[in-house]
Amino acid sequence: MLFEQIMFFVAAAGTLAGALGVVILRNPFYSVLSLIGHLLSLAILFLLLHSEFLAAAQIVVYAGAIMVLYLFVTAYVGGIDQTIRRGGEAGAIGQLGVVMAGAVFVVIALAVLGSSLEALDTRGADLEPGFGSPGQIGELLLSKFLIPFEAASFLLLVAAVCAVVLARRRRGLETDDDEAGGVAV
Amino acid sequence: MDVVWFVVLSALIFAIGAAGVMTRRSPLVILLCTELMLNACNLALLSFARMHGSGDGQIFALIVMVVAACEVVIGLGLIVAIYRRRLPIDVDELSELRG
């Protein structure tokens, strides 16, 4: 019990620090690295919630695959130092954004605390053995949630095709420099 | 740990992500902040799955991860396309839909 609480606060501090790092750090490259730390801490929280399969998927798919994609694109585009909006009208908009985000948090927290869900203040229902295991997830995916599963696979296919179409070089969409270079070659 | 701690933490992460979307100018960082918000939703879904002791919320979280992956692919593809056309990578200046 005590160990669980210590792990929760350590992981929660990690997630919050990672999230703040994403927003505050100037260099997008460091933001991506900060998000990786955030995702790893979040996987610990998933483990505390007995979601072993999702914690593993979070580390392998998110922190592993997707973040590598981000790092490659950030390195390709160039980690230009992007300052947070400041000064003049843009600075005012930025400050308003922070205030609005604080309002979002207050509203969600009020909704949670005022929801009168009595089970919120407990550790949750008793779990059957195998809760959150790959076996249970797979069985649910192929029986009760077969249609969402197929829809997700179709969505992935569409996204892959879209990425190819977006990344393809097309005549007329490049700048004049590129076309001149292409002719010269 | 009580479930409410996890839910409030997810609300906090969501608010941080929302603040990032509203204040940052680089599309890359804005995409990262939407990832933060999606992850906050995942945490809330898993908390409620734990609260009810049913696996349905975990399937929902898994589908959210799939959608997040698709969103990343499209978003990064757009950013690379913008970069190739030598347009400024700044949402304040990319305010026209004209091609």
Percent helix range of chain A: over 70%
Uncertain runs of chain A are: 178-185
The span between the termini of chain A is 68 Å
Task: Give the strand content of chain B.
Answer: under 5%
User: How large is the count of helical segments of chain A?
Assistant: 7
Described by its quaternary structure, the protein is: heterodimer
Provide the succession of SSEs of chain A. Answer: HHHHHHH
Pattern of helices and strands of chain B: HHH
Largest sheet data of chain A: none
Write down how many β-strands of chain B occur, each being a DSSP E stretch of 2 or more residues. Answer: 0
SSE-based structural type of chain A: mainly alpha
The main sheet of chain B comes to:
none
Look at the structure and give the mean pLDDT of chain A. Answer: 83
Mean of residue pLDDT of chain B?
Answer: 88
Question: What is the 3D form of chain B?
Answer: elongated
Q: How big is the Rg of chain A?
A: 22 Å
- How many strand units of chain A? 0
Short description:
Chain A is mainly alpha-helical and 185 residues long. Chain A is built from seven helices and no strands. In chain A, helix 1 runs antiparallel to helix 2 and helix 2 packs antiparallel against helix 3.
Observed structural traits:
heterodimer; A: 185 residues; mainly alpha; 7 helices; 74% helix; disordered C terminus; B: 99 residues
What does this entry look like structurally?
The complex is a heterodimer of chains A (185) and B (99). Chain A is built from 7 helices and no strands. Chain A is mainly α. The model of chain A is unreliable at 178-185 (pLDDT under 50). Chain B is mostly helical and 99 residues long. In chain B, helix 1 (3-23) packs antiparallel against helix 2 and helix 2 (27-52) packs antiparallel against helix 3. The chains are: A mainly alpha (185), B mainly alpha (99). Chains A and B meet through helix 1, helix 2, helix 3, helix 4 and helix 5 of A and helix 1, helix 2 and helix 3 of B.
